Amino acid sequence: MQYSFQYDKPKVLQGLRVHFVSRPEVKIMAYAVNIFAIVAAVLFYMNKIRPQAFLLCSLLWFMLMLIFWFIMPRMVYKRAAKTFEDQYIATFNAVGVGLENERGSMSWDWAKFSNYFESGQFFHLYFGPRSFFYSRKPQ
Predict the structure, then answer these.
(1) Given a cut of 80, is residue 78 above it in pLDDT?
(2) How confident is the model at residue 139 (pLDDT cuts 50, 70, 90)?
(3) What whole-number distance in Å separates Cα of residue 126 and Cα of residue 116?
(4) Where are the alpha helices (DSSP H) in 23-128?
(5) What is the pTM of this model?
(6) Of 30, 44, 98, 125, which is most buried, counting CB atoms within 10 Å of its CB?
(7) Cα 63 to Cα 82: distance, rounded to the nearest angstrom
(8) Is 117 helix (H, G, I), strand (E, B) or coil?
(9) 108 in helix, strand or coil?
(10) Which residue windows are transmembrane per the record (predicted)?
(11) How large is the greatest C-alpha to C-alpha distance in the chain, in angstroms?
Protein backbone atom coordinates (compact mmCIF):
# COMPACT_ATOMS: atom_id res chain seq x y z
CA MET A 1 0.00 0.00 0.00
CA GLN A 2 1.36 3.42 -0.93
CA TYR A 3 -0.11 6.82 -0.15
CA SER A 4 0.84 10.47 0.19
CA PHE A 5 0.21 12.54 3.30
CA GLN A 6 1.04 15.74 5.10
CA TYR A 7 0.82 16.28 8.83
CA ASP A 8 -1.85 18.50 10.35
CA LYS A 9 -0.74 20.24 13.57
CA PRO A 10 -3.86 19.54 15.71
CA LYS A 11 -3.83 15.87 14.69
CA VAL A 12 -0.10 15.57 15.35
CA LEU A 13 -0.56 17.08 18.82
CA GLN A 14 -3.32 14.54 19.51
CA GLY A 15 -1.06 11.73 18.26
CA LEU A 16 1.71 12.91 20.58
CA ARG A 17 -0.77 12.94 23.47
CA VAL A 18 -1.66 9.33 22.68
CA HIS A 19 2.06 8.53 22.62
CA PHE A 20 2.76 10.09 26.02
CA VAL A 21 -0.32 8.72 27.75
CA SER A 22 0.32 5.21 26.41
CA ARG A 23 3.85 5.02 27.86
CA PRO A 24 4.01 2.49 30.74
CA GLU A 25 5.88 4.85 33.08
CA VAL A 26 3.26 7.56 32.58
CA LYS A 27 0.43 5.09 33.18
CA ILE A 28 2.03 3.92 36.43
CA MET A 29 2.58 7.50 37.57
CA ALA A 30 -1.02 8.44 36.71
CA TYR A 31 -2.39 5.43 38.62
CA ALA A 32 -0.22 6.26 41.63
CA VAL A 33 -1.32 9.90 41.65
CA ASN A 34 -4.99 8.92 41.25
CA ILE A 35 -4.80 6.42 44.11
CA PHE A 36 -3.01 8.99 46.23
CA ALA A 37 -5.74 11.57 45.42
CA ILE A 38 -8.54 9.13 46.26
CA VAL A 39 -6.90 8.18 49.56
CA ALA A 40 -6.38 11.86 50.36
CA ALA A 41 -10.04 12.62 49.53
CA VAL A 42 -11.26 9.81 51.81
CA LEU A 43 -8.93 10.87 54.62
CA PHE A 44 -9.98 14.50 54.21
CA TYR A 45 -13.67 13.48 54.34
CA MET A 46 -12.96 11.54 57.56
CA ASN A 47 -11.13 14.59 59.00
CA LYS A 48 -7.88 12.64 59.30
CA ILE A 49 -5.83 15.08 57.22
CA ARG A 50 -5.85 18.81 56.64
CA PRO A 51 -7.20 20.32 53.41
CA GLN A 52 -3.68 21.24 52.27
CA ALA A 53 -2.83 17.58 51.65
CA PHE A 54 -5.94 17.14 49.54
CA LEU A 55 -5.16 20.35 47.64
CA LEU A 56 -1.61 19.12 47.04
CA CYS A 57 -2.95 15.89 45.52
CA SER A 58 -5.32 17.84 43.29
CA LEU A 59 -2.54 20.17 42.21
CA LEU A 60 -0.24 17.22 41.46
CA TRP A 61 -2.93 15.56 39.32
CA PHE A 62 -3.62 18.84 37.50
CA MET A 63 0.11 19.40 36.81
CA LEU A 64 0.49 15.88 35.38
CA MET A 65 -2.42 16.44 33.02
CA LEU A 66 -1.07 19.82 32.01
CA ILE A 67 2.41 18.45 31.32
CA PHE A 68 1.46 15.28 29.42
CA TRP A 69 -1.58 16.68 27.60
CA PHE A 70 -0.40 20.17 26.62
CA ILE A 71 3.23 21.04 27.36
CA MET A 72 5.15 17.95 26.17
CA PRO A 73 3.27 17.49 22.85
CA ARG A 74 3.85 21.16 22.00
CA MET A 75 7.54 20.90 22.92
CA VAL A 76 8.04 17.86 20.67
CA TYR A 77 6.10 19.48 17.83
CA LYS A 78 8.10 22.70 18.11
CA ARG A 79 11.40 20.79 18.13
CA ALA A 80 10.47 18.81 14.99
CA ALA A 81 8.29 21.42 13.24
CA LYS A 82 10.22 21.14 9.95
CA THR A 83 9.59 17.38 9.86
CA PHE A 84 5.86 17.90 10.34
CA GLU A 85 5.67 20.48 7.52
CA ASP A 86 6.94 18.18 4.74
CA GLN A 87 4.84 16.19 2.27
CA TYR A 88 5.50 12.41 2.52
CA ILE A 89 4.88 9.25 0.56
CA ALA A 90 4.56 6.19 2.80
CA THR A 91 4.82 2.63 1.55
CA PHE A 92 3.69 -0.34 3.63
CA ASN A 93 4.35 -3.86 2.34
CA ALA A 94 5.18 -7.34 3.62
CA VAL A 95 8.89 -6.48 3.89
CA GLY A 96 8.61 -3.23 5.85
CA VAL A 97 7.89 0.48 5.72
CA GLY A 98 9.24 3.13 3.38
CA LEU A 99 9.02 6.87 3.81
CA GLU A 100 10.11 9.50 1.31
CA ASN A 101 9.92 13.24 0.77
CA GLU A 102 11.71 15.78 -1.43
CA ARG A 103 14.85 15.59 0.76
CA GLY A 104 15.28 11.81 0.56
CA SER A 105 13.90 8.43 1.44
CA MET A 106 14.31 5.73 4.05
CA SER A 107 13.13 2.12 4.42
CA TRP A 108 12.89 -0.11 7.47
CA ASP A 109 12.27 -3.84 7.78
CA TRP A 110 9.50 -4.81 10.17
CA ALA A 111 12.15 -6.40 12.41
CA LYS A 112 13.62 -2.93 13.11
CA PHE A 113 10.48 -1.89 14.96
CA SER A 114 10.15 -2.79 18.61
CA ASN A 115 6.47 -1.87 18.73
CA TYR A 116 3.74 -0.40 16.60
CA PHE A 117 0.06 0.36 17.00
CA GLU A 118 -2.74 2.22 15.31
CA SER A 119 -4.60 5.16 16.80
CA GLY A 120 -7.37 7.33 15.40
CA GLN A 121 -5.22 9.26 12.91
CA PHE A 122 -1.79 7.58 12.87
CA PHE A 123 0.26 4.44 12.69
CA HIS A 124 2.69 4.75 15.64
CA LEU A 125 5.94 3.00 14.70
CA TYR A 126 8.54 2.60 17.47
CA PHE A 127 12.23 1.75 17.08
CA GLY A 128 12.75 1.80 20.85
CA PRO A 129 11.20 3.36 23.95
CA ARG A 130 11.97 6.93 22.84
CA SER A 131 12.56 6.64 19.10
CA PHE A 132 9.47 6.63 16.89
CA PHE A 133 7.71 8.18 13.96
CA TYR A 134 4.10 8.60 12.94
CA SER A 135 2.67 7.72 9.59
CA ARG A 136 -0.65 9.35 8.91
CA LYS A 137 -3.40 6.89 8.06
CA PRO A 138 -4.80 7.09 4.53
CA GLN A 139 -7.97 9.13 4.24
Answers:
(1) yes
(2) low
(3) 6
(4) 24-45, 51-66, 72-79, 81-85
(5) 0.76
(6) 125
(7) 29
(8) strand
(9) strand
(10) 28-46, 52-72
(11) 65
Backbone phi and psi for residue 26, each to the nearest 5 degrees, phi listed first = -70, -40
- The answer to whether the beta carbons of residues 122 and 19 sit under 8 Å apart is no
Q: What is the DSSP letter of 1?
A: -
CA angle 120, 126, 129 (to 5 degrees): 115
Q: Is 5 helix (H, G, I), strand (E, B) or coil?
A: strand
Closest of 64, 104, 108, 71 to residue 88, by C-alpha: 104
HEC profile of 7-22: CCHHHHHHHHHHHHHH
117 torsion bin: left (phi>0), alpha (psi -120 to 50), beta (else) = beta
Q: What three-state secondary structure class fits 47? A: coil
